[in-house]
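User: Run a structure prediction on this.
Assistant: Running it now.
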Amino acid sequence: MRCILILFFMQISFGVEAQKEFFTSFDGIEITYTDEGKGKAVVLVHGFINDGSSWNATVLKKELLQKGYRVIVPDLRGNGSSGKPQEEKFYTDDAEVRDLQGLASYLKLKKFIVVGYSRGSIITAKWLTLDRRIKKSVLGGMGLDFTNPEWNRRILFANAFAEGAELTEETKGAVAYAISVQADLKALHYLQKHQPVTSVFELGQIKSKVLIVAGDEDLENGNPEALHSAIPKSEFVLLKGNHNDVYKTDSFSKAIISFLK
């Protein structure tokens, strides 16, 4: 039986309350999620300084539910209503990916679809290399740079969220935003420090179908076409828009719904 939290949020797309639930992950951390609709399961994976509620403002979530999909939206550890452990060990060894694998098992999903956006695509890419239950997936708002374990952008933001860090022009806005939404800065530091790395070789071994989708003004995470080239069974769609807004759009939803057919 699922454990139900007395915690609700307004689901923007349908104007009804979606109930948050939780399961206990491999190391005792509670991971919250919402589970709506019936039919083919789609897991939506959110980005950095965010949580699952970020998908509520998207056309995609609304249309998935309208078209009869089951939509599962977790808060990754360290974010939203999920556990935010303060010890570094809880963020190592691809813990976020293991949480998602555990959630799929907890919900008894035999086959499912995953849509990641921004940092959620980084998590999804690693998940793809480990879980044959994923039938199709979408990597949105991401280039190939995350395959480099010494990626300077990852290191830059990991350092920015460390206690007593000196901020730069590139990082001060993100830290200010995190503070404004009462995000856990220590958790964000550990999440960036131990962000999963998927090599180009590993991407080349992915057997399932993958859609790469990005905005034409979004290159801050590397070249999405290079990511497309690295994954054999991938398709690529370039949309008009920037990193922060394109995933909310009708065009983003249409590209994904078409891919899932």
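The chain has a mean pLDDT of 94.
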